[in-house]
Amino acid sequence: MREVLTEYFATEGYAVEVAGSGIEALTAVRDGRADLVLLDVRMPGLTAYKFSAGSAELTESVPVIMVTANEDVGLAKETLKLGAFDYVAKPFDFDYLDRAVAAALARVDEKAAAGPVPDDDPWKRLTHTVFRVVRAMGRRRGHATGQRLETAALAAARGAAAARGAVAGEDLAEIAMLLDLAAEFGDLPAADRALVESAIEAARRSLPVPR
Question: Are residues 7 and 88 located together in one domain of the fold?
């Protein structure tokens, strides 16, 4: 499992460090070598429950995402009360795992900035806003729409970074359409919708004007 996750996130551009036990992982966190921890509920040397409690005392800037088999979901939920950011069940839904990691790292970036994402970085503001709003929607309510919102926001930001303005513009239009659907079905409060719409408009203004 460690090999699969390492290969997957390495191909996504992340620097990945593997720990064979909870003690090794805790040492990496203490040494400041981790921005995020993917933690198996069952591991040698230190239980996930104790790790979550211990890492919360060390720092609040390193989010923990629990990895669990279906029979251990109850334990994973308990770690959320200790400060774990999220959990994913095996076999992996890699789309959800990718979004969970991106959302957790976005939270770290926000805390490091000690304030809201600056308006002069509209694509970062857009992705952060979308992820915050989707997480507020909850795991069940509007789950499918929330997934598509997160995917479209990441795609728009990547398109803009690659100077593909037309593609980014199409992704912005998809986000707007999904907002309409979420609002129509009562999954999205008006205030959250307004936040995302403002972020969309700021991102759209940053696109080059077609000639």
Answer: yes
Identify whether residues 80 and 141 lie together within a single domain. no
Measured distance CA(118)–CA(199) in Å, rounded: 11
Q: How far apart are CA 12 and CA 4, in angstroms?
A: 13
Instruction: Give 72's DSSP letter.
Output: G
C-beta separation of 110 from 118 below 8 A: no
Domain with 32 in it: 2-93
C-alpha 163: how far from chain center: 24
Calculate mean pLDDT across residues 140-148: 73
Task: Give yes or no: residues 146 and 70 share one domain.
Answer: no
Q: Is residue 107 a part of any domain in this protein?
A: no
For residue range 51-68, what is the model confidence (pLDDT) as tens digits?
655 555 444 668 888 888
